[in-house]
Design brief:
Layout: H1 3-32, E1 34-39, H2 43-52, E2 58-63, H3 65-73, E3 80-82, H4 87-94, E4 104-109, E5 111-116, E6 135-138, H5 144-155, H6 159-162, E7 166-169, H7 172-180, E8 186-190, H8 191-195, E9 200-206, E10 213-219, H9 226-236, H10 239-247, E11 251-252
Parallel strand pairs: 1-2, 1-3, 6-7, 6-8
Antiparallel strand pairs: 3-10, 4-10, 4-11, 5-8, 5-9
Helix pairs in contact: 2-10
């Protein structure tokens, strides 16, 4: 074999070994990461929390809670899920997609009626009597925010009165965005979303007669990083994380 041929073989071998090492390193890095499915309304606080968490890299997939449920059923490789509402989680627990002993309530929230700063807002008194304003809401069939909004309106005998004024949106982020843009003058959103927006103003806090808006967190059954996922879950429940959640309008459980 000529020197040139030998040199080519050596170079080929070295390139092959280097490629295998790079692939292996990449695989190890990926397996050490934590993937969290989370309700869209949590995007701001969770992004800040992940920057402060030094143990593992944390990546998020934000969407409406029912969309997140479908991702889990379709085989998502995520480790943790945080819902805006208990119903989607209860269904997944029954279907054995969630480690039941990991379930806990992480946060509380409430609803508020907002108005776009691009318009002259109606007076707070009898605001739901004003038929000239459209109201942005999340779709009750697609997002817990929509379900909560409908329950509030029904509890207060307002649903039939305002149903024709409602403009449905995909999730919490889409709902507040439609009001921020001025496309829809009013909207029912989480108070946490209203707090972090400079383009809307709160005109009325909406209180339920009995219902609580709670954000449950749990470890997904098919996780391959249960120990790391549990460490991050505990960090989410820490005082340091609670301060960040509070800054964005969420209340931790006492």
């Amino acid at each position: 074999m000529s020197r040139i041929a030998k040199r080519r073989n050596i170079i080929f071998f070295l390139v092959l070994v280097l490629s295998i090492l790079l692939i292996s390193c990449k695989k190890i890095s990926f397996e050490d990461d934590i993937i969290v499915l989370a309700a869209a309304s949590l995007s701001d606080p969770l992004s800040e929390i992940s920057e402060k968490y030094q143990v593992s890299n944390v990546y998020f997939d934000f969407a409406g809670s029912y969309t997140l449920s479908n991702k889990i059923r379709m085989g998502s490789n995520a480790d943790i899920v945080i819902f805006a509402g208990i119903d989607p989680l209860e269904d997944l627990v029954k279907e054995k997609y969630i480690k039941e002993n990991s379930v806990s309530i992480l946060l509380k929230n409430q609803l508020t009626l907002i108005c776009s700063k691009k318009i002259q807002c109606p007076e707070t008194k009898n605001v739901f009597e004003n038929r000239s304003f459209k109201i942005a809401v999340a779709d009750p069939k697609l997002a817990p925010l929509g379900k909560y909004s409908k329950i509030f309106l029904e509890e207060n005998e307002l649903w039939e009165r305002v149903e024709k004024q409602l403009v449905y949106n995909l999730d919490a982020q889409a709902t507040i965005a439609s009001v921020e843009s001025g496309n829809v003058p009013l909207g029912i959103v989480y108070s946490s979303d209203a707090l972090t927006s400079d383009l809307v103003e709160v005109i009325l806090d909406l209180e339920f007669k009995s219902l609580k808006i709670e954000y449950p967190v749990a470890i997904i059954d098919r996780t391959k990083n249960e120990e790391k996922a549990l460490k991050f879950l505990r960090y989410l429940q820490s005082n340091e994380s609670a301060e960040i959640f509070s800054k964005f309008g969420f209340s931790s459980l006492e």
